[in-house]
């Protein structure tokens, strides 16, 4: 069921909203209130303004894209959507796997103009919700600072941080959400709230791992950052046929390594590789990798080790060649996930599932370390004790058979691992077909998250098919 059908059945969208609702005069009044642009179907620039990262959703038709330039624009958009019972979604980087930020028949609030990054003398960073990871890293590096985050330069900070935020430094420093000190958010009632550990702490708790789009539209963040350090990187390629041996060795080896080391595995039919970062002496890294190679029992067929500055290290992990068949400009692929909560008792059986379906690539990101030293209920991110996250990817372009073919392939892997991995998944890799998705993404924190959503969005203004808000009525809400 797509988003429009869901909201129509639930009563959140009047039938007229699918054919010319709201009236043109109402749109013109909204346009005059905005300091940023408003794009409607037929307007110059609309086709470009409605695009997210994934090309599969280019046929979706939002009724409007609000190019918000200040927080009052966001308030106006939320109030307009509430009054006219239109679905609304925020877009930061636009990397939602199901395309939820390109809302068919609703309003997209484009946050790309909230892209500022300010580094204070004490190392705190004020970052707009539309900022991308590449410019954030560059600006922070110029000030001698780093925010532990992902390495894909085009990803937006909002979706990443609100879902937790995994990256290549998180075993040492924790998740991106663990560095969040405050957030500015427009809630369903149109109010602008600055939330923190002491100001509306329940909402602040929910924003640290509770997923994007559930509680309002965040427009800005305050993060703690850490001092800039050089990073030792490594990349080992093993012969095809060693995938099971590599995975088995890695899950034994990872709990023995220091927090300074992060290591991720790539497994596909034609590759078995491991790469990572180390915040320590090169000689110590060499000894750790020698231990891993001994456990694999087969020497790598190729390898690279080097010490880089932070920006160069992140660029190395953002290399399109590291993700076969994918590009980082705009792309057509989908993903899903499972969380490895403990070492797999039969590593070969796991790898058999990973390789059984053609076209599926698996990225395994190591966890533990600083991530696990935060309690699973201290923030909304529930998978603190996981050994790793598994992300499964499949091309979704015409050359791959389209999105439906890709989803069938990913379902075979996701569900094939279900008996061993349980109802687990990472909310930033949303999958519209994930079984028991709410439990998988939120675990023990689900009841509290739903309570926070009911408190701050009782009418379900921000409802979407995998959202925590549930439409309860179609009562009009006055524009703020």
From TrEMBL:
Cofactor: FAD
Keyword annotations: FAD, Flavoprotein, Oxidoreductase
UniProt domain FAD-binding PCMH-type: residue ranges: 58-228
Pfam families tied to this protein: BBE, FAD_binding_4
Entry annotated with the keyword Phosphoprotein: no
Family (UniProt): Belongs to the oxygen-dependent FAD-linked oxidoreductase family.
Protein name (record): FAD-binding oxidoreductase
Taxonomic source organism: Amycolatopsis melonis
Lineage start: Bacteria, Bacillati, Actinomycetota, Actinomycetes, Pseudonocardiales
């Amino acid at each position: 069921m797509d988003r429009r059908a869901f909201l129509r059945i639930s009563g959140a969208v009047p039938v007229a909203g699918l054919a010319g609702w709201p009236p043109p005069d109402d749109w013109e009044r909204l346009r005059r209130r905005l300091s940023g642009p408003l794009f409607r179907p037929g307007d110059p620039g609309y086709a470009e303004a409605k695009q997210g990262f994934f090309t599969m959703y280019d046929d979706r038709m939002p009724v409007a894209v609000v190019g918000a330039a200040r927080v009052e624009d966001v308030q106006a958009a939320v109030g307009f959507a509430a009054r006219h019972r239109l679905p609304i979604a925020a877009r930061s980087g636009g990397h939602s796997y199901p395309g939820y930020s390109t809302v068919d028949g609703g309003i997209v609030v484009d946050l790309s103009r909230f892209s500022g990054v300010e580094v204070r003398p004490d190392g705190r960073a004020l970052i707009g919700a539309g900022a991308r990871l590449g410019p954030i890293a560059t600006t922070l590096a110029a000030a001698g600072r780093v925010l532990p985050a992902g390495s894909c330069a085009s990803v937006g900070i909002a979706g990443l941080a609100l879902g937790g935020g995994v990256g290549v430094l998180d075993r040492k420093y924790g998740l991106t959400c663990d560095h969040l000190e405050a957030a500015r958010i427009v809630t369903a009632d149109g109010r602008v709230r600055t939330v923190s550990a002491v100001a509306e702490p329940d909402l602040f708790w929910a924003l640290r791992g509770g997923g994007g789009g559930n509680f309002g539209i965040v427009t800005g963040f305050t993060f703690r950052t850490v001092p800039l350090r050089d990073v030792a990187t490594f990349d080992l390629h093993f012969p095809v046929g060693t995938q099971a041996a590599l995975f088995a060795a890695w899950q034994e080896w990872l709990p023995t390594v220091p927090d300074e080391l992060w290591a991720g595995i790539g497994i596909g039919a034609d590759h078995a590789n491991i790469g990572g970062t180390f915040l320590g002496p090169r000689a110590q890294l060499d000894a750790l990798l020698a231990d891993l190679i001994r456990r694999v029992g087969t020497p790598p067929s190729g390898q690279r080790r080097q010490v880089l500055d932070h920006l160069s290290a992140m660029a190395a992990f953002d290399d399109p060649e590291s993700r076969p068949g994918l590009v980082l400009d705009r792309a057509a692929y989908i993903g899903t996930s499972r969380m490895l909560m403990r070492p797999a008792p039969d590593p070969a059986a796991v790898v058999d599932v990973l390789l059984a379906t053609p076209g599926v690539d698996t990225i395994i990101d190591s966890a533990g370390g600083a991530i696990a030293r935060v309690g699973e209920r201290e923030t909304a991110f529930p998978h603190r004790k996981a050994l790793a996250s598994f992300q499964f990817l499949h091309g979704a372009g015409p050359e791959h058979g389209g999105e439906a073919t890709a989803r069938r392939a990913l379902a075979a892997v996701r569900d094939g691992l279900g008996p061993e991995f349980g109802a687990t998944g990472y909310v930033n890799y949303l999958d519209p077909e994930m079984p028991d998705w709410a439990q998988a993404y939120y675990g023990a924190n689900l009841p509290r998250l739903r309570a926070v959503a009911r408190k701050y969005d009782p009418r379900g203004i921000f409802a979407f098919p995998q959202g925590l808000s549930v439409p309860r009525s179609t009562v009009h809400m006055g524009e703020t």
